[in-house]
Amino acid sequence: xxxxxxxxxxxxxxxxxxxxxxxxxxxxxxxxxxxxxxxxxxxxxxxxxxxxxxxxxxxxxxxxxxxxxxxxxxxxxxxxxxxxxxxxxxxxxxxxxxxxxxxxxxxxxxxxxxxxxxxxxxxxxxxxxxxxxxxxxxxxxxxxxxxxxxxxxxxxxxxxxxxxxxxxxxxxxxxxxxxxxxxxxxxxxxxxxxxxxxxxxxxxxxxxxxxxxxxxxxxxxxxxxxxxxx
Length: 230
What we know:
CATH topology of the largest domain: Four Helix Bundle (Hemerythrin (Met), subunit A)
Structural class: alpha+beta
Number of helices: 7
Strand content: 5-15%
Number of strands: 4
Largest sheet: 2 strands, antiparallel
Strand order of the largest sheet: 1-4
Order of helices and strands: HHHEEEEHHHH
Number of domains: 2
Helix content: 40-55%
CATH architecture of the largest domain: Up-down Bundle
Shape: globular
Mean pLDDT: 90
């Protein structure tokens, strides 16, 4: 595998930030603690670093190659997908680490379905779920929407209100990515992922990666590729 990339018409080589550098930045915040073991945080750090390196590559493609409008928008779509996943992973860790994760002391142990029966000429079926009450609470997976609301209500990323609005819009935008069902017969990727969305994901991802939670990082200057070109 090559460790340098170049345009066919150029002799200048280029390569995005190394995985090691990106992991160092992420690990300035995402570390093992009461809520996450080292075996849990290590793949989180790596997956975020892999996605960040790929996003930098896609940004460079947009910068260096004259793309057709379809290819440009598909690139933007990919950046939104990977960018939203990075944000989701970071905020999930943030909410749980700050002690705001959802928990329960009930554990589902079995489900029983009744036979079908009829009432007023309509058919019905019941499901009964059996829960075991635990001595200690266990974590419950939260949706992107739920922990984003917690991040905003607790101002876990600081006081920039626009950032929270942008994060919510990114979440909604990511939810639009369903090839089999656009939700609107006239709406396609071509309509959605335009230059405004590209600027939005760049700005929002940059703000998260350089926010107060990463204050101890020595690599805050490694995300120039996310700065919007005027």
